[in-house]
Write a structure and sequence with these properties.
Number of strands: 0
Order of helices and strands: HHHHHHHHHHHHHHHH
CATH topology of the largest domain: Growth Hormone, Chain: A
Distance between the termini: 34 Å
Shape: globular
Strand content: under 5%
CATH class of the largest domain: Mainly Alpha
Helix content: over 70%
Oligomer: single chain
CATH superfamily of the largest domain: MFS general substrate transporter like domains
Length: about 425
């Protein structure tokens, strides 16, 4: 553990963030597996559509409440708001426990929506509080650890949610895990040092539309920040596309079972975490667009490596497990490509978050980060729509990785124009 990770200025935020992301993914994956494997219909919606709907339910609050979340974070002491957000998480997990134990799937869907609200309000807080507690030279390392924790939590939450809900008495054990993680997050949040308001006289607007439009107008006028936010959102577009391709890649292209698809997710999550930490080392405590550009180049190169690894694997129609997968030609190259792609993604994203924090007006930093979250959400929805359109037009999964590599090359030209 580095001195920063051991410090009270950072470690409680790190733990609080990790617990929130972990619960998001335990809840979401446990719910999806229950609906899928028990063929449950909710409100007349079949399981296949319910899985897609669950993702939409979670991301909807980012469009609805991000502006208000940014205002609250700028108006009040951020450490106090974080505590109240974590208190709400404990209450949400109690509702989820009720949903799992009855079982009551509408209650679980409401819990998932409320966890989306929780993440919407916590997002601006976790990024805007770092510049108040960390020195400028510590920001890259702080953001690197936050990103690493996020993707590790995604991986662990997905696995834990899936494993626990599948064992005997699974809904009970999922509920226990959710409540314990929420309580740990709350206890950690109470240790976060004060972070005084940056604009105490700011009026909070509860109208969902007008403050959102005002916030988007603000980041549009700050052209440098707006370009940083677009570059940041490209990472989430790219990542959402790749993660959506994993099940198709495993089942229909390289012909493997669910274990290999889980391996793909693990490689991607760990890779982004490693890339984030690597970025903290490469940066020498200074965030630059050039460092992000190196990550973007790596994403393009390794997307091509993934394509080359897939080609020999797509020939055999026989479905294989994890052990047999590695014995096949192309498997090492595919795994190396996915790892390199995800590590490069971590190097790409960390400097962008740091630059957004450094270049934002402290009085409105939380609102700018909230605006970034809205644009991120727009890009992720666009990724789902574009991917669906490409698949409908008959594009093969390997070809989509080539398209991502080409789009990254175009994004590189945009990135070098930021400064």
């Amino acid at each position: 553990m580095t001195p920063l990770l051991r410090s009270r200025r950072f470690f409680p935020v790190f733990v609080t963030q990790f617990c929130g992301a972990l619960n998001d993914n335990i809840l979401k994956n446990a719910l999806v597996i229950l609906v899928t494997y028990r063929s449950i219909t909710v409100f007349g919606i079949p399981p296949e559509q319910m899985v897609a709907l669950a993702g939409g339910i979670f991301i909807l609050p980012f469009f609805l409440f991000s502006a208000t979340a940014g205002q609250l974070a700028d108006r009040h002491d951020k450490s106090r708001v974080i505590v109240w957000v974590k208190v709400s998480e404990v209450a949400i997990m109690v509702l989820a426990t009720y949903g799992f134990l009855r079982p009551d799937f509408p209650a679980l869907l409401v819990s998932l929506f409320l966890m989306g609200v929780h993440s919407t309000f916590f997002g601006p807080l976790k990024y805007s509080i770092l510049p108040q507690h960390l020195h400028r030279g510590e920001l890259v390392e702080g953001n690197a650890w936050i990103e690493a924790a996020t993707f590790l939590a995604i991986l662990l939450g997905t696995i834990v949610g899936g494993v626990l809900v599948s064992i005997e008495g699974g809904p009970f054990w999922v509920s226990v895990a959710l409540v314990i993680v929420a309580v740990v997050g709350l206890l950690a949040s109470r240790m976060i040092p004060p972070a005084p308001s940056s604009e105490p006289n700011l009026k909070t607007q509860w109208n969902l539309v007008s403050p959102t439009l005002v916030m988007l107008k603000i980041i549009w006028q700050e052209r440098f920040l707006f370009r940083l936010i677009l570059a940041n959102s490209w990472f989430w577009y790219f990542g959402a596309t790749v993660l959506s391709l994993f099940p198709l890649l495993g089942k229909n292209v390289v012909h493997t079972d669910e274990g290999v698809v889980t391996l793909f997710l693990a490689i991607f999550s760990v890779g982004v975490g490693l890339g984030s930490i690597l970025c903290g080392w490469l940066s020498h405590h200074k965030a630059t667009v050039t460092l992000s550009a190196r990550g973007l180049i790596g994403m393009s190169v390794f997307a091509v490596v993934v394509y080359l690894g897939i080609l020999p694997l797509s020939i055999s129609p026989a479905s294989v497990g994890l052990g047999a997968f590695f014995a096949r030609e192309g498997a090492p190259m595919l795994v190396m490509g996915l790892l390199g792609l995800s590590v490069s993604g971590g190097v790409f994203i960390v400097p962008l978050y740091t630059l957004i924090q450094e270049r934002s007006n402290p009085a409105m930093r939380s609102r700018i980060i909230a605006g970034n979250n809205i644009v991120n959400a727009i890009f992720m929805v666009a990724a789902a729509l574009v991917l669906a359109a490409l698949l409908k037009q008959g594009f093969a999964v390997p070809s989509i990785f080539l398209l991502l590599a080409a789009a990254n090359a175009i994004s590189l030209l945009f990135l070098f124009r930021i400064e």
